[in-house]
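Structure ticket #2291
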Amino acid sequence: TASTTAAMAASSAATALSPPTLAAGPAAAAMPDEGEAWRALALRWGVTLADGVDACAAAGAQGLQCLRTRGGLDLIRRLGHPVIVELQDDAGRRGHALVTGMADAGLVLQTAEGPRTVALAALARVWRGEFATLWRPPPGWRAGMPIPALEDWLRPRLAAAGGTSADQPLREQVLAFQTGRGLTPDGRLGPLTLIA
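Resolution: structure written out below.
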């Protein structure tokens, strides 16, 4: 009947938007093993990680870098990469989920149960802002590298991103780019700037 169909649709919507359950067992919505979340993330980069390996070291051997940081949903949105979030419920149980996208209703998580949309308000109850991701640095990049060392790599990307003028000194272009992306305008070529 129409009322049964409406009730089932409402039930499905409530399930899709409920906060992740972090109970132990196969029905857990979050991945209890952080390694599982890293393996799922690495697959999105075309990299297979073996069980029990250091995810960052193994990804590094494939030309990827790990980034662990803290920030809000705006930062995750600006980065535009899948990220791993650590979830913790009121009982202190922890799990991990892979954020694969954003929808009007909330975040799309790849969990142990498969893709699941979680309302932002529900996520706020179990997420404290920490996230991690993988990224591919420019060839030869190292932390603290001066801007001129990456000039050939930077110039076309800054031009494509818009909001800067090719007539500006490169450092000023980097500062303008960082400001436009909501990043700290420090002129440094750190992971957040290079990913954004």
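Closing remark: Confidence is low (pLDDT under 50) at residues 1-28.
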